[in-house]
Structures are given as C-alpha cells and as structure tokens.
Amino acid sequence: MWRGKASGRCVLALLSLWLCVQSVPISLDKPKVAVPEEKLEPPQSTDTGLHYDRYLREVVDFLEKDTYFRDKLHNANMEDIKKGKLSKELDFVSHHVRTKLDELKRQELSRLRMLIKAKQDIQGGNGMTLDHQVLLKQFEHLNHTNPHTFEVEDLDRLIKSASSDLENFDKERHEEFKKYEMMKEHERRERLKTMDEEHRKKEEAHYEEMKKKHAEHPKVHHPGSQDQLKEVWEESDGLDPDDFDPRTFFKLHDSNGDGYFDENELEALFTKSLEKVYNPTHEEDDMMEMEEERLRMREHVMNEVDTNKDRLVSLDEFMVATRQKGFTETDDWETLDQNPLYTEEELKQFEEHLANEENNLKEKASDLQKQKEELERQQEQLNAQKMQLQLIRERL
User: Fold this and answer.
1) Which residues does 337 contact at the CB level (< 8 Å), separation at least 6?
2) Long-range contacts, stretch 341-349, CB < 8 angstroms, 24+ apart
3) Is the pLDDT of residue 33 over 80?
4) pLDDT for residue 7 is more than 50
5) Do residues 97 and 66 touch, judged by C-beta distance below 8 A?
6) Which 8-state DSSP code applies to residue 86?
7) Complete DSSP assignment for 144-193
8) What's the CA gap between 391 and 208, in Å, rounded?
C-alpha cells in the first residue's frame, strides 16, 4: 500500500536545488557569549517515493556541480524554483554538465519505455487494456518528444512535476489508509454474515472489547508542544526535564547535522507518543493505524512550524515556534479512534464499488473461459482434420 517505515517518508528532494550553502540560523535568545557562525551543509536528499526519484536526484546532483547554476539557485527563493523561473538558466551551464544531463534523460526514457513494455506484456496476457492517460502521466516529468537532449523544458517539467507530486503524496496516503480501514470493516461485516446468532454475538462482543481496550491508553501530548518534546528529552535522551533547552534539543535530534529537521527526523520525535497507543504484540492495536497517526502528527507540526513551506524545519523556524503561545498547549492529542475516518454512506459506496469490480472480474473470467473453450474446440477440429489428411495419405 505504502512504505511502512519512517525512513520511507517522502522528503522534498527538490529542496536540493535550493542550496542553503553556509546559511546561518539566527538565534533569538541573544546569548551573553558570542557564538561563532555555523556553516551548514545543504539538506541531504532522501528517497521521495516518486517513480522518477533516481532521475530527479541525479539531475539535482549534476546541476549542483555547476558553479554558475549553483550561484543562481543560492540567490533564488523556493517560489521561483517551483514556478520554473530558473529553468532558463540551464542554457548557461557547462558543456560537461549538459552532456551528462542528456545522457541521464536518455537513460530515463529507456527505463520508462521498458516499464511500459512490461506493463503491456503483463496486461495483454491478462486480456486487459492499458489506460493511455496513465501511461502519458509516466512521462510528465520530461519532454519525451525530444528523446536526445536535456533542454530548458525538461528542467521546468521536472521541477513542476516534483513539486506537485510531492505536495499530493500525503493526500494520496491518507486516501489509501481510508480505503484500508473501510476494507477492514467490510471484511468484518462479511464474516459476521457467515456466522450463526451465537457466534455472531460473541464476535461482536469481542470487537467492542478490543475497541475499548485500544482506547484505554495514557494521555498523548500535542505533537510539537513543550510537553511532548520534554517527554522525549527525559525518556529518550535521559535528561532532566527541568533543564530542557530547545536549541540543544534541536541539535540532539538533527541526526544528520544539516541544521534542519526533515520529515524523517520529525517523525522520529513521535515514537514515544505512539508507543503509548500502539503495541505490536497487542491484538487491539493496528500498526497500519500507527503509521497513519505518525503521518498526522508530522503534518500537524509542519503546518505549525514550517513557515516557508519547504517541507523542512530549520533551527530558526523551530526556535520561533517555541516562543509561540501554542508551544505550551496542554490539550491532549486526539488519536485516530477519536476521529471517524468515514461515514456509513462512504462505506456503502465503497462496498458498491467492490461489488462492481467483483462483477467485472467475473465477467472477464467468464469471457476468458469461453475463449479458452472456443480455442480448445478449434484445436479439436484441427486435430480431426489432420487425422483425416493422414488417413488420405496412407490410402494413397
């Protein structure tokens, strides 16, 4: 369905284009002792989950090697990059880089064509037809009408596709999880239909008992709040909660030392909170729900703290957030079991869709069976004709 591990979360690899070279986080604490400026490396690019992730990262890596392009990107803002305003600067990069980009594009087109061919072979063998709109979407991140050279339009398409796809990535994961939950409920209800009255009552009672047991968990602090971070500081870091210091906390949990919390690093901060609600050894706890809870927590913190919407939290953004009124919020976090994911009407529509799909599959299976029987009949006729010809030859 989607990648289960936190390390598989999508990070905006496009940010590698926005080079934060030697950027200095601004301290709002006004320390008494002057602290030397920290030279930070650009944020590290991790797997985005996009089907063209490798191509995206390789293009980024080579563009970063060109001094002219690197300087232009360093002076640009994220909005300019997303809108493709810097794509025209590609005309001024070195010949060596352009040559390598040409090669990368040809390799990517070759990969896509092999993928499409494999899909055609598989679906053709199953008697299924390909959706051409879906196929065309596979090529949106490059100009496939020019298969030989990497041009301004290719960079423009790559940037815009990555921006759009990554912004919709979490939304798609939420939809997939919703379908997962509806399927789980659908299957539960279908099982009940197969039971007699006595077993059905026992199953319903067990279901209600598991729901109640799952809901009985300790208080979960609001993600990103002072209480939640102090809990990590004390239980994970082994430090005195009275000595909690946001700047030190940030540096302790900036695992790659790049001066930013990426989505992986943020989600790691919620582990203690999630352990209060989910235990893999407990029947009542679903680990798929835990990952959805983790995603919700990360989105909440990003919405509150990531002011420039680059899908990274800088030290400066983090420090500003710790001075906001909401940082000391003590309200409990509402977990998934307190927020219904779907209505009965949505479940009904989902089940109708499943029924239609099942009917379509049955019809296709029936058609295939008829085709098989027709082929067998034709083969029998051919065999009979061969036998007759053989008899005629023997008489002659």
Assistant:
1) 211, 214, 215
2) 341/177, 341/178, 341/181, 341/182, 342/178, 342/181, 342/182, 346/182, 347/182, 347/185, 347/186
3) no
4) no
5) yes
6) T
7) TTS-S---HHHHHHHHHHHHHHHHHHHHHHHHHHHHHHHHHHHHHHHHHH
8) 75
- Whose tokens are 């509402």? That residue is 334
CA distance 70 to 89: 10
109-163 pLDDT per residue, tens: 888 777 777 666 665 555 555 555 555 667 777 877 788 888 888 888 887 777 7
Q: CA geometry: angle at 316 spanning 310 and 320, to 5°?
A: 105
Please, what is the average pLDDT of the chain? 81
What is the CA 89 to chain-centroid distance, rounded? 30
Tokens of 336: 């998934």
Per-residue pLDDT of 22-32, as tens digits, reads 233 333 333 33
Label residue 279 by pLDDT band (50, 70, 90).
Answer: very high
Q: Of 157, 154, 116, whose CA–CA distance to 138 is shortest?
A: 116
Q: Both tokens of residue 57? A: 């990262």
- pLDDT 10s digits, 43-79: 444 556 677 888 888 888 888 888 888 888 777 776 6
CB < 8 Å & 24+ apart, contacts of 247-251: 247/27, 247/29, 247/315, 247/319, 250/315, 250/318, 250/319
Q: Reduce the DSSP state of residue 221 to 3 states and report it.
A: strand
**Cα Rg of the chain, angstroms:** 29
| Residues 6 or more apart whose Cβ sits within 8 Å of residue 145 | none
Percent of the chain with pLDDT over 90: 41
Give the span between the Cα atoms of 290 and 336, in whole angstroms. 9
Structure tokens at 363: 């019809």
Question: Under DSSP, is residue 261 helix (H, G, I), strand (E, B) or coil?
Answer: strand
Structure tokens at 30: 């006004």
3-class DSSP assignment, residue 85: coil
Q: Using alpha carbons only, give the angle 106, 108, 109 rounded to the nearest 5 degrees.
A: 65
